[in-house]
Amino acid sequence: MRLVPWWALLSSGCAPLLLVSGWMTATLLHGPGYEPTTQTISLLAVVGAPGYWVMTGVLIALGACHLLTAWGLRPAAVAGRVALGAGGVTAVVLAFSPAPSSGGSLWHGTVVTIGFTLLAVWPVMAAVRRGSAPWGLRPAVSVTVSVLMGAGGAWFLLELQLHGAAGLAERALTTAQSLWPFAVVASCLRHRDPDSPV
């Protein structure tokens, strides 16, 4: 018997593809005035930006992917599934809370921070403390991934403060956060529970 439904692999696999293709398309639409290494993804989603509609659609779809994946990830601890689903909800909220073209926004920044935090802590919250857990849900793996995502968040904040490579840090972090649910679902699909009948 499968631990997760097949569609969880589809929803989790679509998330990184949507995210990366979305920001690449929005960057192309924006033109040479946008520098992806130093400028954040939020600038692509500013109302009136050439790629606004692309990023809005991507964020809504990304949120839906995380929600579906959380729903289908039955072997994970409930707290982790809730955190992943809530991370999906923040992506949808972010789609309707773009950064203003005039500069920073407390509301936008708060939503981004909540989303990054939820997607950084969900692996450790989803960990299953039994020997037969799929590798993606084992405590040591989950803690390591959450620590690395936390370090990625710290790198992003540092680059923002230094006016450095914030775009690069953000892309690395968001890519990792969108890929990890896929890795966990794949580990569940490949896992054979020794307690289940053959």
Question: Mind explaining what this structure looks like?
Answer:
This protein has helices spanning 6-30, 52-72, 78-95, 106-126, 139-162, 166-190. It has one domain. The chain has 198 residues and is an all-alpha fold. Helix 1 packs antiparallel against helix 2. 68% of the residues lie in helices and 0% in strands. The mean pLDDT is 92. It is built from six helices and no strands. The relative contact order is 0.16. This is DUF998 domain-containing protein. It holds the Pfam family DUF998. The chain crosses the membrane at residues 52-71, 78-99, 105-128, 140-158. InterPro entries: DUF998 (IPR009339). Keywords: Membrane, Transmembrane, Transmembrane helix.
Question: How does the SSE layout of this entry go?
Answer:
Blueprint: H1 6-30, H2 52-72, H3 78-95, H4 106-126, H5 139-162, H6 166-190
Helix pairs in contact: 1-2, 1-6, 2-3, 3-4, 4-5, 4-6, 5-6
Transmembrane segments: 52-71, 78-99, 105-128, 140-158
Keywords: Membrane, Transmembrane, Transmembrane helix
Organism: Streptomyces meridianus
Helix content: 55-70%
Query: Any idea how many domains?
Result: 1
Parts with pLDDT < 50 across at least 5 consecutive residues: none
Radius of gyration: 17 Å
Q: Report the order of strands and helices.
A: HHHHHH
Quick one: how many beta strands? 0
User: What is the number of helices?
Assistant: 6
Give the overall silhouette: globular
Give the integer mean of the pLDDT values: 92
Look at the helices and sheets and give the structural class: mainly alpha
Describe the biggest sheet? none
* Assembly state: single chain
Beta-strand content bin: under 5%
Organism: Streptomyces meridianus
Keywords: Membrane, Transmembrane, Transmembrane helix
Protein name: DUF998 domain-containing protein
Transmembrane segments: 52-71, 78-99, 105-128, 140-158
